[in-house]
Design brief:
Radius of gyration: 16 Å
CATH topology: Ribosomal Protein S5, domain 2
Largest sheet: 4 strands, mixed
Number of helices: 4
Shape: globular
Mean pLDDT: 96
Structural class: alpha+beta
């Protein structure tokens, strides 16, 4: 396991320009400027509950809508996670959290398996939260899972408030990821019988 589990990702397309940095062994600090207020709110919660330091600056074609910015930040976060976790020697690999948010109950389970899978079972009762299109939450996490090469399962058991559902998902994903990247004091080597992830 390398001493510094950090990553810096830059992505520039015709639609977005993004700079993202993480420290897996941080304290949950964040500096966020995506231009999408609701996404900044969710990323702040994610950093706090994962105890991962997160620095994101994004400039996107928000005159169109927030889709490209939200998805591309997810791509960058996924790539950063994959880079920061490195060869995965000594980590727990798996994480899960079931988390309440008022009337909502959500479970997130994940595996840093090296295989990209996202199973999403979370319906949004309301499609718009201010200017944020709630289906973008799924787009964000699909982008994270695809680029972090992890299995990600999201299940909303019940809930009637879209804000609460999305917030619970971000917090539960953060808590699950916190477990998965944690160094296992009883483990050694890569946590797989194959010897590689």
């Amino acid at each position: 396991m390398t001493a510094a589990r950090t990553a810096n990702i830059r992505r520039e397309t015709g639609e977005t320009k993004i700079s993202l940095a993480i420290n897996l062994d941080g304290t949950g600090q964040s500096r966020l400027a995506t231009g999408v207020g609701f996404l900044d709110h969710m990323l702040n919660l994610f950093a706090r509950h994962s105890v991962i330091d997160l620095d994101v600056e994004a400039k996107g074609d928000l005159h169109v809508d927030a889709h490209h910015t939200v998805e591309d930040v997810g791509i960058c976060l996924g790539k950063a996670l994959a880079q920061a976790v490195g060869d995965k020697v000594g980590i727990r690999r798996y994480g899960s959290a079931t988390l309440p948010m008022d009337e909502t109950l959500v479970t997130v389970a994940l595996d840093l398996s090296g295989r990209a899978v996202c199973v999403w079972n979370a319906d949004m009762p309301i499609e718009m939260l201010g200017t944020f299109n709630t289906p973008l939450a799924e787009e964000f996490w699909r982008a994270v899972a695809g680029n972090a090469l992890m299995n990600l399962h999201v299940l909303c058991h019940y809930g009637s408030n879209s804000h609460h559902i999305i917030e619970a998902i971000f917090k539960a994903a953060a808590r699950a990821l916190r477990q998965a990247v944690e160094v296992d004091p009883r483990g050694s080597g890569v946590p797989s019988t194959k010897g590689v992830l």
